Amino acid sequence: MAELRLDERLENDSYPITELPLCQLRLMDDTRYPWLLLIPRRPGVSEVFDLDEADQQQLWREASRIGCAFKAMLGADKLNVASLGNVVPQLHVHLVLRHQDDEAWPGPVWGQGEPRRHDLDSLAAMRDRVLAMVEGLDLD
Q: Are the beta carbons of 56 and 72 closer than 8 angstroms?
């Protein structure tokens, strides 16, 4: 598998959690919304259709299973799944948990207020929770 060369904006705005069969799993640095990123480890990919069919299926498998478990773990009202790429062209999929009382509800999270960064303790706690959640999933 090719080594992932992460766009610097993704690297600066998120923290690594683990490597999955296809993607690197990362946590966005904004405590307002529980927010994960899936970034396929494929060079030069900006669209889902740039992946071969097997990788497309694997991406959806990882997004669906992690999204479902993440939503259940944190009791969210909704899981938003998005792949925009307007600012960062490197293919990445957002898994954003939403609650009806969050500050952006019912609108999108993008461009809403200022991010509230994780402190080291909250980052470590969330990383540990997500890692434990992922370990129980069949992602192959």
A: no
Verdict on whether the full-model pTM lies above 0.85: yes
Residue 69 confidence (pLDDT) above 70: yes
Kindly give the interhelix angle for 120-135 and 53-74, rounded to the nearest 10 degrees.
120
The answer to whether residue 38 scores a pLDDT higher than 60 is yes
Helical ranges in 75-119 per DSSP H: none
Res 134: pLDDT: 97
Residue 92: helix, strand or coil by DSSP? coil
9-13 contact pairs (CB < 8 A, 24+): 9/87, 9/88, 10/37, 10/39, 10/88, 10/90, 10/92, 13/115
Per-chain mean pLDDT for the chain: 94
Average pLDDT over residues 79-103: 94
Give the alpha-carbon dihedral of 13, 14, 15, 17, to 10 degrees: -170
- In the chain the domains, ranked by start, together with CATH numbers, are 8-105+114-135 (3.30.428.10)
What one-letter code names the amino acid at 83?
A: S
